[in-house]
Amino acid sequence: MNYRISERAASLTPSLTLEIDAKAKRMKAEGQDVVGFGAGEPDFDTPQHIKDAAAAALAAGFTKYTPAAGIPELRQAIADKHRRENGIEYRPEQIVVSCGGKHACYNVILATCQPGDEVLIPSPYWLSYPEMVKLAGAIPVILPTTDRTEFKVTPAQLRSAITSRTRLFILNSPSNPTGTVYTPEEIRALGDVCVERGVLIMSDEIYEHLLYDGAVHRSVASFSRAHYEHTILVHGFAKAWSMTGWRLGWSAAPEPIARAIDAIQSHSTSNPTSFAQKGGVAALTGPQDHLKIWLAEFDRRRKYAWERLNRIPGISCVNARGAFYLFPNISGTGLKSMEFCQRLLESEKVAAVPGVAFGADDYIRISYATSMANLEKGLDRIEQFCRGLVG
Ligand SMILES: *Cc1c(COP(=O)(O)O)cnc(C)c1O
Q: FRET pair for 294, CA 20 to 30 Å: which of 80, 158, 162, 266?
């Protein structure tokens, strides 16, 4: 049988990170002492009151289809959150609840991009963005940045990449994989360029609450009516409420775009899981005490890992002010990221993600969503590994 795979599917880059991840898991299963720095999720449990709300909904029989865009109560709670925390006015009809922030991103791209449209993506990027753009038949255009500018694109760089075919600019601050947080002034300036040139912005703000060193988050949609009208905001419950497995996220968009997203979703996944949505309501309307505790712990680990990394020969690391990742430069070791990570795993049993997966081959991604004891052990091993390379 000749199974012809669609061009759409064949155009995707298989996840490089999965290869290393699978190998790390295999080694662990064999009983080897592997330290994992690959995690893309908090190592804390979902707060109890959120789990209770979903369990109560399940017990009460809240187990049927809901409206495709989500239950009115949750769409309202999301609109209230944006008014309260971001100073942005959305009506519930502008909110679509999806099966994770990733699903929300995919819907936004499908709803706004046609074949041949160009989508501007700063690198290092979250690895799903270019693949989603390709699935929509559109063209990812990468705007490269380095650690010399803290991985920030400039307004001039953005302006010079815009053509008559540019449809969308993807902004992710705080960033996965670099932890970079743009200042409000920088966000406004990038937004100004998009407004001036009629380019939409997909602003992925899922790490909004994970900030350190006094960094502040300001949504690009909040600056003016024009910024608001050019922005589709994407968010979710995975990171600040540690709900990765719940599959719950949302988009907030101008109403015609929200209607298009709703239509796409109604013919693909339908609604996000009914009782998970009740957990989402509890997450947004309930106490937020957990966040302070998590942030203090993340911050302690971030400082420790950053200081250690910068003392390792061959490695330099700019500080991250958001999310739970560091993105050290490994070019001083003479290795590219894939070989570095493969050899690190084989010889020292430490799993990290090669930067090439995020479009940046001179770096690796270290997640500090793991215990302090693991961080100490893993960094000792990385140090030993690099001393062996650099001498
Ligand atoms: C984790 C993450 C998301 C969303 O993840 P879901 O689990 O689908 O909610 C979106 N964008 C970025 C950059 C992320 O790291």
A: 80
The total number of structural domains in the chain stands at 2
Would you state the pLDDT for residue 25? Answer: 87
Examine residue 195 and state whether it is found in any structural domain, yes or no: yes
Q: Taking the chain, what is the end-to-end CA distance rounded to the nearest angstrom? A: 54
| Residue 20 CB coordination number (10 Å) | 21
pTM for the model: 0.97
Q: Residues 48-105: pLDDT tens digits?
A: 999 999 999 999 999 999 999 999 999 999 999 999 999 999 999 999 999 999 999 9
Domain end (from 252, 285, 318): 285
- Ligand 1 within 6 A of 179 CB? no
Asked which of 285, 305, 331 is the last residue of a domain, the reply is: 285
Bridge partner list, 236: 249
- Angle 131-137-138 from CA coordinates, rounded to 5°: 80
Ligand 1 contact, 249 CB (< 6 A): yes
Q: How crowded is the C-beta side of 43, counted as CA atoms within 13 Å?
A: 17
Q: Does the Cβ of 236 fall within 6 Å of ligand 1?
A: yes
- The answer on 231 and 105 residing in a single domain is yes
**What is the CA(387)–ligand 1 centre distance, in A?**
35
Please give the radius of gyration of the chain, using alpha carbons only, rounded to the nearest integer.
21
